Amino acid sequence: MEPKLEKKFGLITAIAMVVGIVIGSGVFFKAEKILTATGGDLKKGIFAWVIGGIIMISCAYTFSVMATRYQYVNGVVDYAEATMGKKYAFYVGWFMAIIYYPTITSVLAWVSARYTCVILGFSITGGECMTIACLYLVASFTLNALSPVLAGKFQVSTTVIKLVPLFLMAVVGTFMGVRSGMTAYNFTHYVSQGTSGGLFTAIVAASFAYEGWIIATCINAELKDAKKNLPLALIAGTFITMSVYILYYIGLAGTIKNEVMMAGGETGAKLAFQTIFSSAGGTLLFVFVIISCLGTLNGLMLGCTRGIYSIAARGLGPNPKVFSQVDSTTNMPVNSAILGLFLCSIWLLYFYGANLTTSWFGFFSFDSSELPIVTIYAIYIPIFIMFMKKEKELTFFNRFLMPCLSLLGCIFMIIAAWFAHGMAVVAFLIVYFIVMMLGALILRLKKTTL
User: Fold this and answer.
1) Is-contact 409 55, C-beta < 8 A?
2) How many CA atoms lie within 13 A of 26 on its CB side?
3) Domains (range + CATH), the chain
4) Model pTM?
5) Cβ of 137: how many Cβ atoms within 10 Å?
6) Quick one: which of 169, 182, 177, 175 has its CA closest to 285?
7) Taking the chain, what is the end-to-end CA distance rounded to the nearest angstrom?
8) Which end of the chain is more exposed for a tag (fewer CB within 10 A), N or C?
9) Cα Dmax for the chain
């Protein structure tokens, strides 16, 4: 039987959910990289935020239309099944369980630890930072696995907290920058020529900050008048997110010179907050940034703990009887959760060896915070194409115009990733195909035993 979920969310609540899911640590983590990639060119940096935001908004709208067509369908795996079939859905779920969720979650654990180390005065690439990252991973796993209700409350609390430093920096930083002339200075002075393919690098970096919006489509079965309100919520929520990010970026420009921010790295953001709110106030707001990162980590760990379960629940993947089991007390797929934590640990070790120290992997070193996100955009392409082919009753705007814009956005992200990462894309694709071939082998073995 299909689940019968209560229609309990209104439009305002839905918009708040979208904003809460999408806004996270990425804006703190990637603002510095975007500034560096564009050589301190604020106009080019803002353009990168806008392009990334437009791609997010167009894709979000197309998926919102899917949500209204496929009632009670939740998540990108089920959208893949509705448009492309069960086999493609398995590969999407396999990718998300083995690569997508654990890579992004492991990076978020390090980001949370990195900002903790900035306050404590530790190295962001040393043993202290990685130890804290491991502790954050285990703590997030424990919270989700043993007390889902408490994990939900933590998520709501951090959603509110994460907006505090963003809005304060956006408003106060911009006001001070206009009065002092710092904003005008940073808008008219460039630090360098930026990196090779700087704009593409900046846009791919922005995609990390924007990621997470697809999760918001899961509320469609619980949304009042979903056919009207879900598209409005996704468009309004993603537009608000883009606006907040750009205003925060401008607010930073009103505090300290771009060259200081770029040279300071992680401490640059802390210095920006302390410039406005004094040393104590700036440190307190930086604590809010850490809590924001932990909130995002908590939300991603939620996906990690259910990664293999989403496949096993369909009777697919490795040992589905084991990974589809749900604990009667906590109502959690514990076996799936344990595997999710293990995969996060493996990818955290890889991230350290490939990006934070002298490379352990040589040619096979790549940025696991960005390339998996670009891959998910590539995965959307056949879904959008089949959606246009199947949904003949929709208007031209919903059937062709917005899906085509979404397709162009996805293709652009793939091209941008190549310019931003070069041969590292090839290294990632090799790892990707190995993982997917393993999934194909498991799928074939499963069919032979049926």
Assistant:
1) yes
2) 30
3) 11-449 (1.20.1740.10)
4) 0.85
5) 25
6) 169
7) 23
8) N
9) 72
Cα–Cα dist 382/377, whole Å:
10
- Burial class for 238, CB neighbours closer than 10 Å (0-12, 13-18, 19+): buried
Residue labelled with tokens 């360098």: 192
61 and 45 Cβ atoms separated by less than 8 Å: no
C-alpha span between 134 and 130 (Å, rounded):
6
Distance CA 380, CA 214 (A): 11
pLDDT at 345 (0 to 100): 95
How crowded is residue 405: how many other Cβ atoms within 10 Å of its Cβ?
18
Query: In Å, how far are 87, 92, 168, 207 from 375, measured between CA atoms?
Result: 18, 10, 34, 11
Cβ atoms of 112 and 133 within 8 Å: the answer is yes
pLDDT tens profile 418-435: 988 989 999 999 999 999
Structure token pair of residue 7: 């229609």
